[in-house]
Amino acid sequence: MSARILVIEDEPTVIEFLRTGLSYEGYDVVVTESGREGLARALNEDFDLVILDLMLPDMDGFDVCRKLRAFGKDVPIIMLTARTDIQDRVRGLDLGADDYITKPFSFDELLARIRARLRRAGHTAEPTELRADGLVLNVETHQVLLDGTPIHLTPTEFALLELFMRHPRRVFTKETLLNRVWGYDYVGDTNVVEVHISHLRNKLGRMGRAIQTVYGVGYAFHPEEG
Questions:
Q1: Which CATH superfamily is domain 4-120 in?
Q2: 70 half-sphere exposure, CB direction, 13 A CA radius
Q3: What pLDDT was estimated at residue 123?
Q4: Domain map (residue ranges) of the chain
Q5: Based on CB atoms within 10 Å of each CB, which residue in 44, 56, 113, 168 is the most buried?
Q6: Residue 29 in contact with residue 7, Cβ under 8 Å?
Q7: Which neighbouring-strand residues pair with 70?
Q8: Which pLDDT score is estimated for 124?
Q9: Distance CA 121, CA 144 (A)
Q10: Alpha-carbon distance 79 to 87, whole Å?
């Protein structure tokens, strides 16, 4: 079964970013936009992980975290905040949060932290090595091999390839790729996606053909086409 994640967040852009990205990864995502509602759901329902914004309109994340722990809920909690003060991080961890990530953040970083917390909580781990017709991507070592030969990718190219290999044949729009790889706060030229896809295809040699353009929609990875 997929992990069930509760997102307690009131910023619409971040909500959509998390809902879309986590759903793509196969997680069952529940969103609440207030601290009180989030606390009530976390206390009365079963979740595998909570993503908790610090700045909420009715009850801040510190209070939500403190009350969850006071009621004996040991669900992993990852706090989100725009604050950079180290004292806020220390306070959150002291209240029982398991991790802390500062906005703006990349989806890949958040996803890595989610996977780590779920593994520690005993949830089935996702594979760290992805394979497709001689192409091997190792998430832990950040190494890519094609027929045994190393391929040197930039961090952005690596993130694109990992996303494609985790979801073969799934079509990703340009907007989804921008959100997932560049982040929800990206405001640059959207043509950056096409440029990086082109560079990635060139570096992948024969497997570059596996990244196919779905005209008018986006891109999809078809490993059988390599």
A1: Response regulator (3.40.50.2300)
A2: 8
A3: 67
A4: 4-120, 129-225
A5: 56
A6: yes
A7: none
A8: 60
A9: 29
A10: 14
CA-to-CA dists, residue 68 to 52, 80, 85, angstroms: 12, 16, 23
pLDDT along the chain (226 residues), means of 10: 89 91 90 95 95 91 93 92 75 84 86 86 72 91 93 94 92 89 78 93 94 93 84
Give the separation between CA 155 and CA 140, rounded to whole angstroms. Answer: 13
CA–centroid distance for 118 within its chain: 13
Rg (CA), the chain: 19
| 3-state secondary structure labels for all residues of the chain | CCCEEEEECCCHHHHHHHHHHHHHCCCEEEEECCHHHHHHHHHHCCCCEEEEECCCCCCCHHHHHHHHHHCCCCCCEEEEECCCCHHHHHHHHHCCCCEEEECCCCHHHHHHHHHHHHHHCCCCCCCCEEEECCEEEECCCCEEEECCEEECCCHHHHHHHHHHHHCCCCCEEHHHHHHHHHCCCCCCCCCHHHHHHHHHHHHCHHHHHHEEEECCCEEEECHHHC
Q: Specify the pairing of strand 143-146 against strand 129-132.
A: unpaired
Confidence at residue 212, expressed as pLDDT on a 0 to 100 scale: 95
* β-bridge mates for residue 213, sequence order: 219
Alpha-carbon gap, residue 39 to 107, rounded angstroms: 24
Identity of the residue numbered 97: A
Q: What is the pLDDT of residue 108?
A: 84
What number does CATH give the domain 129-225?
1.10.10.10
Cut 0.90: pTM above it: no
